[in-house]
Amino acid sequence: LTIMGDAGMEPNISPPDNIAQQDSLFSMTDVFLISLITGLFTYWFLFRKKKEEVPDLPKIQSVAAPVRDSSFIEKMKKTGRNIVVFYGSQTGTAEEFANRLSKDAHRYGLRGMAADPEEYDLSDLSRLSEIDKSLAVFCMATYGEGDPTDNAQDFYDWLQEADADLSGLRFAVFGLGNKTYEHFNAMGKYVDKRLEELGAQRIFELGLGDDDGNLEEDFITWREQFWPAVCEHFGVEATGEESSSTFFSFLIRQYELVVHTDVNMNKVYTGEMGRLKSYENQKPPFDAKNPFLAQVTENRKLNEGGERHLMHLELDISNSKIRYESGDHVAVYPANDSSLVNQIGEILGTDLDMIMSLNNLDEESNKKHPFPCPTSYRTALTYYLDITNPPRTNVLYELAQYATDTGEQERLRKMASSAAEGKALYLSWVVEARRNILAILQDMPSLRPPIDHLCELLPRLQARYYSIASSSKVHPNAIHICAVTVEYETKTGRLNKGVATNWLKNKVPDENGSNSLVPMYIRKSQFRLPFKPSTPVIMIGPGTGIAPFIGFIQERNWLKQQGKEVVDAFFSAACLHEREDYLYREELARFHQEGVLTQLNVAFSRDQAEKVYVQHLLKKNKENIWKLINEGNAHIYVCGDARNMARDVQNTFYEIVAEFGNMGQPQAVDYVKKLMTKGRYSLDVWS
């Protein structure tokens, strides 16, 4: 048809000739087209055939990703567990308590497992009733101002949004908090309340541990009543020779020791937190499991006299792609004092450079090792284990079996018992005397445990957090830290030193930088300047609580230089003596002179007979403070000690609001609480 059409477009050809030419062309073209079409069809058919034959080959079955089994229910069924203990942990304590509870279960013919809620799908809680005598326990720490810990954030979000039917779920909650904070045990209380709202059955009352008091004793007291309630509910009894009144875990090793006599040292951990050789081959993004090695470029003493050592450090984060905002925290991973590590090795007669691994005996556990392995004992005791804090009672109880002196063994067991006499002994001999594991080994000559078991029992050395003392607008490639070294004499006459601050003190910049590297990462904060620079700010930061405000003031100064309207900034600080520890004196004076700080008030608490604190400065300026809050919609920021200062400052604001707002005390308290809810009263405090 195409050729006929094309021929029809040739009007100069005569009809007879045209017909003859059509016959000739049709014949030749027909052969050509038929051959071409046949060839193309054959090729297409064969090609298509091959493509279709591929699925007929043996298929690889699509299964769940092997990286993580998100169903804790399936894991419990597979391993014969019926108790799961979830933990929301920021410093490792809640995780430790969860492990102890899961281990306890064996004494009652039950099998437990500790679980990180971040690793599982918590919507499966509705299916837990599929397992006989099942129970979910939640050890939930509260972080910051009533927030969930990082690993429990997804669980918290799910609880808020969930509309699940948990009527078949049996549960119990133990919360870890600190009464010096405004929102004491908020996370534990919320989980307990919310699970009940979703229909779950509480089989034992909510436990509220207070780290400002004796968290260990609170946990033991709750646990010794918790297990009888479990036994009664399920109709089971304790097994083993021990009396059920003691409620201790069986002496079951969780890890087995493997000594490596012939190992490739390139496969041995030397202090890395996650990926092997990550300190040699740094790759962003940087976080808790992949910290950045920042070089200390400046380390200077801030105070001019006195016994304390206050310091300003600057960490270089160039080329790291790390971003931070004023008010964020920098987390650093410290190292234990080498002299303490060496003394432990000497007392236990151990070759600290032996390469070993501690492998979990539970092959189904997600946690294969208590710390990165293989490694040396020296590395474990230096970078991975906490050897400076007083050990908890479960550590003493398990170590007691290695004391050859019966008196020492009995003393250790008594301190780990739930009896009032034992609790009092633990409080006085361990906690109040600040005896760490080295001091206990020194004071109990017959106690010589295998070092591998000791390493299994000691908790992990945690990162230390510092409020960043700089603005990224002014210092995009550096993070500043303001800290005071911790050093004190214990009741036994020993000199105890803070792990991180003394480690940082010795991080002096050198030419090659190898001795001044700090593993760090950023932890985001809600402690933020107002969105509008024209909003007034009231900052209260005694001592090293000044740190985030140096960043705030730097940023407001930068904004002012950019032509932004920056209005009232009231700053109240405090130190012991003006001549000794007035931190950042020159910087503050300059900012005040330039108008970035409209009011600078500093209390020197020990320079006169009557002590003067930041709350006194607030009262002195109470009329102006109220004007800034009431008329200027000022934002209030408090940083420093939670136990006394933050509470006293808050009470002072109650008084100011009551006086100038013509309110009663209850109304004034409610007014300040609403400021907090609206984000106009922010806290960055520690105890």
Structural features, described:
The structure is a single chain. The protein has 687 residues and is of the alpha/beta class. Helix content is 36%, strand content 18%. The protein has 4 domains: 72-234, Rossmann fold (3-Layer(aba) Sandwich); 283-334 and 463-525, Translation factors (Elongation Factor Tu (Ef-tu), domain 3, Beta Barrel), CATH 2.40.30; 337-461, Up-down Bundle (NADPH-cytochrome p450 Reductase, Chain A, domain 3), CATH 1.20.990; 537-685, Rossmann fold (3-Layer(aba) Sandwich), CATH 3.40.50. The strands form 5 sheets. Strands 1, 2, 3, 4, 5, 6 and 7 form a 7-stranded mixed beta sheet that branches. Strands 14-11-18-9-10-15 form a 6-stranded antiparallel beta sheet, with helices on one face. Strands 21-20-19-22-23 form a 5-stranded parallel beta sheet, sandwiched between helices. β19 (537-540), α16 and β20 (569-575) form a beta-alpha-beta unit. One of its GO terms (cellular component) is cytosol. GO terms for molecular function: flavin adenine dinucleotide binding; FMN binding; NADPH-hemoprotein reductase activity.
